[in-house]
Design brief:
This protein has helices at 3-11, 31-42, 45-50, 53-67, 79-96, 125-135, 153-164, 179-183, 204-223, 240-254, 258-267, 272-281, 285-294, 299-306; strands at 73-77, 103-107, 142-146, 168-173, 186-189. α5 links the parallel β1 (73-77) and β2. The protein has 14 helices and 5 strands. It is globular.
């Protein structure tokens, strides 16, 4: 049996690669009907994610515990999976004011693979080990390998290397009984079924991965005190829209008039969380900063101390 024949036989066993004969004539249908079929397919994804919520929550608690002590969160994947990891990581600094190195996305083939496929990169477990070595991976870090098929060597290689270094590992795939989930301490398998286009895992599988990554990063940041209720109090005001949002967040959290909000933001150098503490805790800017530092950035704890 040739190498390609062996791989083809393996792909034949994967739910994400299954052929759906009932859709064999989809290209003959009216555009609206194709859109309705695709939309109905997408509507099944949240239910598949819901089935994995206990495992997602367990992974989040483990990740948050390490990040609270300075650990990093690293996503590693190839193709669509890698791009989704890079996307989620890149959105954490402006949303939660994290250091760009606190949540990192690795894609097989490097940054250029975000826009152009790098042939063969996903087949290299060694490349994943090299990428993690370049990051200086430690036992404090958490690594999430992402692969729709659950067999991608780059994602499995990342998890294997991370485990060898004592890091926390999570394997996110869209097939049951995947090698990726088996390799990780926390296996998450969101089985969304065969795709509308055979094997096109940028569709339901990609949507499922995006939803899970949203859950992991958002709930982890909530656990780390990056929010106050459902307000993004660690938002980084890097443009006019975000500066306006900062003022709106302070207003929603405190009910203070505009003049008091502006004064609080001025005394705290524009830090939203500090400004809220200044207003609600009745303290000055330096005291607010000190209280938050003592509370590990958790606004509720700092408020309790101020009061």
């Amino acid at each position: 049996m040739t190498a390609y024949a062996a791989l083809r036989a393996q792909l034949d066993t994967l739910t994400t690669e299954a052929f759906r004969p009932e859709l064999a004539d989809i290209d003959r249908l009216p555009t609206l009907e194709i859109a309705r079929i695709m939309n109905a397919e997408d509507a099944t994804v949240p239910a598949a994610v819901a089935g994995e919520l206990p495992r997602i929550a367990a992974a989040v608690d483990a990740i948050a515990a390490r990040m609270a002590h300075g650990g990093r969160l690293v996503y590693a994947g190839a193709g669509t999976a890698g791009r989704l990891g890079v996307l989620d990581a890149s959105e954490c600094p402006p949303t939660f004011n994290t250091d760009p190195q606190q949540v990192v996305g690795l894609i097989a083939g490097g940054p250029g693979a975000m826009v152009k496929a790098v042939e063969g990169a996903e087949d290299s477990a060694e490349l994943a080990a090299a990428d993690l070595t370049a990051l200086g991976l430690t036992a404090d870090d958490s690594v999430i390998g992402i692969s729709a098929s659950g067999r991608t060597p780059y994602a499995i290689g990342a998890v294997d290397f991370a485990r060898s270094r004592g890091a926390l590992t999570v394997g996110l795939s869209c097939n049951a009984g995947s090698a990726l989930a088996a390799a990780a301490e926390h296996g998450i398998e969101v089985v969304v079924g065969p795709e509308l286009l055979t094997g096109s895992t940028r569709l339901k599988a990609g949507t499922a991965q995006k939803l899970v990554l949203n859950l992991i990063s958002t709930v982890t940041m909530i656990r780390l005190g990056k929010t106050y209720g459902n307000l993004m109090v660690d938002v980084r005001a890097s443009n006019e829209k975000l500066r306006a949002r900062s003022r709106r967040i302070v207003a929603l959290a405190t009910g203070a008039p505009d003049a008091e909000i502006e004064a609080a933001l001025t005394t705290t150098g524009g830090e939203v969380k500090d400004a809220i503490l200044v207003i609600l805790g009745g303290v000055d800017g330096p005291t607010a900063a000190a209280l938050l530092a003592t509370a590990g950035g958790h606004l509720r704890a700092a408020l309790a101390e101020a009061r």
